[in-house]
């Protein structure tokens, strides 16, 4: 795996998983929220955002986390050699976004753009609550239009097993290259 797209609901663990996978594989991680949001939670012009994404994935190796279906799938998915969709229970995603809000209120996180402090956003909360029914089918349908198979990881245990398997794969690959 050299070019990985990670998809899923807010609070599913996409950013955390992307950092862990990037570290395991030695790949740079591109958080799409960092590229998208402008200070004050302002949406950018679509062309400007797409140019940032295109530049970020111009190399031969990367991990991206974030959905942005209509805005970036045509840039990322044709080049991806792995697509991972993280499924988590709705209650856990909602809990995590509320926890992030409570623990980071007014501050910024590494996976958010500069000038975008953590705050409670009712429409975002509702989007997260309704994700499985409203957004997930659209995201998966759009992803299935591309030839790269989608790996579905259901819950933290699946994510941990997947990461552990990457360590094994990397070790086996390294051993075979030395022989």
Structure description:
With 179 residues, this protein is of the alpha/beta class. Helices cover 54% and strands 13% of the residues. It contains eight helices and five strands, in the order βαβααβαβαααβα. The protein is globular and about 40 Å long.
Which residue ranges are poorly predicted, with pLDDT under 50 across at least 5 consecutive positions?
A: 171-179
Strands ordered across the widest β-sheet: 2-3-1-4-5
- Structure annotation, total helices: 8
Structural class of the secondary structure composition? alpha/beta
Order of helices and strands: EHEHHEHEHHHEH
Q: How would the blueprint of this fold be written?
A:
Blueprint: E1 3-8, H1 14-25, E2 29-31, H2 32-36, H3 46-56, E3 62-65, H4 69-76, E4 82-87, H5 90-104, H6 122-134, H7 136-143, E5 150-154, H8 155-178
Parallel strand pairs: 1-3, 1-4, 2-3, 4-5
Helix pairs in contact: 1-8, 3-4, 5-6
Tag the structure with descriptive keywords.
single chain, 179 residues, alpha/beta, five-stranded parallel beta sheet, 8 helices, 5 strands, 54% helix, 13% strand, globular, disordered C terminus
Short description:
This protein is α/β, with parallel strands linked by helices and 179 residues long. The protein contains 8 helices and 5 strands.
């Amino acid at each position: 795996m050299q070019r990985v797209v990670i998809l899923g609901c807010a609070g599913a663990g996409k950013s955390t998983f992307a950092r862990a996978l990037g570290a395991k594989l030695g790949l740079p991680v591109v958080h799409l929220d960092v590229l998208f949001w402008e200070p004050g939670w302002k949406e950018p012009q679509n062309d400007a955002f797409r140019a940032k994404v295109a530049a970020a994935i111009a190399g031969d190796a990367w991990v991206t986390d974030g959905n942005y279906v209509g805005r970036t799938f045509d840039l990322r998915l044709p080049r991806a050699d792995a697509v991972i969709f993280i499924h988590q229970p709705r209650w856990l995603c909602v809990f995590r976004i509320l926890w992030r809000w409570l623990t980071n209120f007014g501050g910024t996180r590494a996976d958010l753009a500069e000038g975008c402090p953590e705050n409670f956003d009712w429409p975002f909360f509702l989007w997260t609550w309704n994700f499985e029914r409203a957004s997930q089918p659209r995201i998966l349908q759009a992803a299935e239009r591309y030839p790269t198979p989608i790996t579905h990881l259901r819950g933290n245990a699946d994510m941990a097993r997947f990461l552990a398997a990457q360590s094994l794969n990397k070790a086996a690959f390294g051993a075979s290259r030395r022989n």
